[in-house]
Amino acid sequence: MVHQWVKQAILLYFRLRAMETMEIGPFEFRDKIPLKRDLESQGIRVVPPGTVRYGAFCEPGVVVMPGYVNIGAWVGSGTMVDTWATVGSCAQIGRGVHLSGGVGIGGVLEPPSARPVVIEDGCFIGSRAVVVEGVIVEEKAVLGANTVLTASTPIIDVTGPEPVEHRGRVPAGSVVVPGMRAKEFPAGTYHLPCALIIGKRTERTDSKTALNEYLRELGVQM
Predict the structure, then answer these.
(1) Tens digits of per-residue pLDDT, 98-117?
(2) 181, exposed or middle or buried, with CB in 10 Å at 0-12, 13-18, 19+?
(3) Residue 166 falls within a domain, yes or no?
(4) Is residue 30 part of a domain?
(5) Burial level of 82, CB count in 10 A (0-12/13-18/19+)?
(6) C-alpha neighbours within 13 Å on the C-beta side of residue 56
(7) What is the pLDDT of residue 209?
(8) SS3 sequence of the chain
(9) What does the alpha-carbon distance between residue 36 and residue 151 come to, in Å, rounded to a whole number?
(10) What CATH code is carried by the domain that includes residue 68?
(11) How far apart are CA 222 and CA 178, in angstroms?
């Protein structure tokens, strides 16, 4: 659920705050927004030099490795933000999600009406995947390594007799990998990036071990 007034409040907060120098151990920062404090009472684990900015919300059980969670973001319990993964401002990450190393989840503050990226419960986002421009990844979907999804990226289901195209939304339980699609131009035929749905998760593949075996069968790199 997206609340436009939250973004408006953050933008006003930026205008009201003055720049200040903050020293944390041997590190020095200069910014308008402090870091999130009192992590123990909130049940959040943040591994140095992981960063959760003030104004982000993390439920108990969230683990942030040396990654980054920006102001306005919402992260559900049991989710791991792995090394060098970033959760942009106002992005929404569900419960039990794994954001693998180097994942980039885009943020958005302006305009306040713009939809943020939403990663629903139980998703697995593979290494170096990028999700931006308000794309919704529905529950228990899997994105293979290096998958890039924007609002205009064709997401093509190739599991049936005919391709079915989606944009801006990954259907629940889909297994998605990077792909290429040929397109004609005046200068010749060239291949443009797309994403391919090559499988579907089932109850049989819900456990971590079974999911790993299923992804290996499909040849998905994570």
Answers:
(1) 999 999 999 999 888 889 99
(2) middle
(3) yes
(4) no
(5) buried
(6) 31
(7) 63
(8) CCCHHHHHHHHHHHHHCCCEEEEECCEEEEECCCECCCHHHHCCEECCCCEEECCCEECCCCEECCCEECCCCEECCCCEECCCCEECCCCEECCCCEECCCCEECCCCCCCCCCCCEECCCCEECCCCEECCCCEECCCCEECCCCEECCCCCEEECCCCCCEEECCEECCCEEEEEEEEEEEECCEEEEEEEEEEEEECCHHHCCHHHHHHHHHHHCCCC
(9) 31
(10) 2.160.10.10
(11) 12
Q: Among residues 213, 210, 208, which one has the least CA distance to residue 96?
A: 208
pLDDT in tens, 81-102: 999 999 999 999 999 999 999 9
Distance in angstroms (rounded) separating the CA atoms of residues 177 and 147:
6
Question: Which residue, 58, 56, 65, 53, is CA-closest to 24?
Answer: 53
Q: Indicate if the pLDDT at residue 57 is higher than 70.
A: yes
The total domain count for the chain is 1
Could you tell me the residue range of the domain that residue 185 belongs to? 4-15+44-204
Mean local confidence (pLDDT), 32-61: 95
* Cα-based distances in Å from 39 to 21, 129, 196: 21, 28, 39
Is residue 210, in this structure, part of any structural domain at all?
no
What sign does the dihedral 190-193-194-198 (CA atoms) show?
positive
Q: Which amino acid is at 11?
A: L
Calculate the CA dihedral of residues 133, 134, 139, 143 and round it to 10 degrees. 0
Q: How far apart are CA 170 and CA 159, in angstroms?
A: 14
Is 22 a domain residue? no
